[in-house]
Structures are given as structure tokens and as C-alpha cells.
Amino acid sequence: MASIMTNASALTALQSLNATNKNLETTQSRISTGYRVSQASDNAAYWSIATTMRSDNQALSTVQDSLGLGASKVDTAYTGMNKAIDTINSIKVKLVAAYGSTDAEKEKFQTEIETLQKQMKSYADGATFSGTNMLSVSTASGTAADVKIVSAFNRDASGKASISTIDVNVESIKLYDAGAAPDAKGILDTARLGTTGAATTSAQDPTLGDDPATGDTYSVAKLSVKGASDGQISQMMNVVDAALKDMTNAATTLGAAKSSIDLQKTFTTSLMDSIDRGVGQLVDADMNKESTRLQALQVQQQLGIQALSIANGSSQSILSLFRG
Predict the structure, then answer these.
(1) Under a CB-based contact definition with an 8 Å cutoff, are residues 38 and 29 in contact?
(2) Secondary-structure percent of the chain, ordered helix, strand, coil, rounded to 5
(3) Where are the alpha helices (DSSP H) in 34-143?
């Protein structure tokens, strides 16, 4: 039936052309943005997942920066500890040389020992990075606070976020503690029993020149061979040897922390790459596919325009029915 009121063919052609134009807009948007899902209306579930994972990746980037900062702090402390170990070995050599020497010679050795003691303090005080010093601290009371290095940003199955840290126990590695009332002094400024070298909170200053007394204590930071008897120098060697052992253990602790940080940095980098790939698989557009689809839709658009033109032209043929 021919009608001048309703052109069914034109309506069908128009609907088809509108659908083609809409698909063309979608494809052009994907090509211009590079995303198959660029907003929530494209795919709400994928967009939500991708947005959360991108946010987590930004947090991991900050974790990576924190690990780099933490590595520098540990490296600085490790360098200071190694230099202090070299210096305390030199003090040990001077003590051995002072054993059995004359008082005049002991005075000369003491001058060298004092220089080495000042050098160790300088190493500890200088081992500071970004305001953090693990070797020379000042604890008002109790124990020195751990240095916490952010190592991971985690999200569990329920979506709850949490932070993991690598903790460095400063209390076990500090060389000096200038605080008023810490629970324990540092490895080098703590009082140690001359008999065993063990650290103690009950200091008992020896009377230099006398035979060693039970309970006599010495501090590596304040050792003095000037006027000391050979028995007392022997006890000083016990103290230095025990302190050296503690410093070696402290260096091991720092080395283990450094290794953990390096491993975590490598893992974090790999994790960020994995998240990027996962997000890409969810929301990135396949440019080969979209390019092919674009060409097909452009052809459909041209055909749709022609079909609509033909459908609109059919009503003109009705005029020929009324021409005389």
C-alpha cells in the first residue's frame, strides 16, 4: 500500500542508519581513547575493577619510592657500621700493643685510641639519611623506636586494604645512645663487664693500675690504657672483642634488611607490570579489530544514507498517479 502519511520504508532505513551511526560513534571513541571501557556506562563491572586496580597501582608506585628511601637509610647505616667495625679492630690492635708496654708507651697508645674513639663517634653521627640515624640515637626512656619501611600495599579478598612494613630493630644495632634514661645504652657506650664483655646496667669504674676487680666495667667509647695494668688491659680486650661481636651481628641485621628491601623492590616492579597487563586486558581496545570495524561501519553508513534517500524518493512516485 502506498501512503503519503506514513513512509514505512523511510522509517526502517532511518532506524538502521541511526543504529549504524551509534555504533560508529562507539568505535571512533575507542580508537581515539584507546579504551574499550573508558567510562562506567561502557561496562560498569570492568570499569569499577580497572579503576580500583589503577588506584592500587598508584599506591604501589609510592611503595616503590618508600623502598628506595628505606634502602638508602639502611645503606647509610650499613656503611657507618662497617667503618666502625674497621676502627674497633684498630683499637683492638692498639690494646694488644699496649699490653706489657711501659707507662710512657701506654700514654702514646692512649692518644691513638682516643683518636679512633672519636672517629667511631663521627662515623655513627654521620650515618644520617633524610633525618634518620640508626647508629647514634637519643632515647628519652625505654627502647629506641624501630625504623619502619613501607614494603607493600595489600588488598584482601573482601577488598580491605592494608600496609606491610620491613622493620629494622634500632635497639639491637645502635652504637651510641645519648638519651637520659634508655633501658640500654648502645654497643659502644654501654658498660661491659671486664671478665666476660657482657653488657650490664651496673657500672663499676676500675681503679687504673690495680689488679682487675670483680665487677669492674669498661666502655669501648671511654677505654683508657693510660696507667692501666696489664690485667686491666686484658679485660679491655674482652670488652672490645664482645663489642666487635655485637657489631658484626648488627651489620648482619642491616645486611638482611637490605636484602629484603631489594627483593621487595623487584617484586613490586613485577606486580605493577602484572596489574597493568590485567587492567589492559579488561579495558583496552583491540585496535586491529576496531580499525576493521570502523571501515565496515563507514560502508554501512553510506549504504544507509542511500537507502534512506531511495525510501524518501518513493513518495515522489505517487505524484505520477495524479498527473493527466
Answers:
(1) yes
(2) 60, 10, 25
(3) 44-98, 103-126
Summarize pLDDT for 277-307 with one digit per residue, the tens: 998 888 888 888 888 888 888 888 888 888 8
Contact 177, 186 (CB under 8 A): yes
pTM of the model: 0.79
What pLDDT band is residue 5 in, cutting at 50, 70 and 90?
A: low
Distances in Å between the Cα of 113 and the Cα atoms of 65, 88, 94, 266 are 41, 9, 7, 44
User: What's the distance, Cα to Cα, between the start and end of the chain in Å?
Assistant: 22
Q: How far apart are CA 304 and CA 311, in angstroms?
A: 10
Which helix H or strand E contains 307, and what residues bound it? helix 287-314
Q: How far apart are CA 258 and CA 18, in angstroms?
A: 63
Q: Which amino acid is at 77?
A: A
List all residues 6 or more positions away from 156 whose beta carbon is below 8 Å from its beta carbon.
Answer: 162
Nearest alpha-carbon partner for 11 in 243, 256, 246, 304: 304
Residue 314 confidence (pLDDT) above 80: no
Q: Using CA atoms, how far apart are residues 232 and 178, in angstroms rounded to an integer? A: 26
